[in-house]
Amino acid sequence: MSIYNIPVKNIKGDQGTLAPYQGDVMLIVNTATGCGFAPQFKGLQKLHDDYSDQGFAVLGFPCAQFANQEKGDDKEIEQACELNFGVNFPLYSRIDVKGKDAHPLFRHLTDEARGVLGTKSIKWNFTKFLIDRQGRVVKRFAPTDEPAKIESHIRELL
């Protein structure tokens, strides 16, 4: 299955796919506004701002599976991201990223890019997946990997 055919719902509740990003480089991130890593939103937004005109997008997928650090409904999540962190990159509806109810997108991402010691499961918020222009998952980054550390990898793909 192509990453571009997986159904997703944006933060406004509209159903779609990632087909609009076909041919772009993407950084897909499971986010949580209440997480200690939430300051990374600013770095993610900077990457999005700096490279979006070259065919790059950060895509945020809120998740509450880790210590329930994403509270509220999609509208509240969107407001918190915008007001607290200045986020205007695309956000999607809150999903599960691990376990039996994991969203198909994150099942695909974890099948394609394993974590430390070959683990498949996502361990925490702000796990990041870098996707090339052909829709291939090329690298997985840990929650502790700051967005600035990812920039050189993005430039290589652009």
From TrEMBL:
Keywords, ordered alphabetically: Oxidoreductase, Peroxidase
UniProt-annotated catalytic positions: 35
Annotated GO biological process: cellular response to oxidative stress
Pfam families from the UniProt entry: GSHPx
InterPro entries associated with the record: Glutathione_peroxidase, Thioredoxin-like_sf
Key word Oxidoreductase present: yes
One function term, GO molecular function aspect: peroxidase activity
Top-level taxonomic group: Bacteria
Assigned protein family: Belongs to the glutathione peroxidase family.
Entry protein name: Glutathione peroxidase
Species of provenance: Paenibacillus agaridevorans
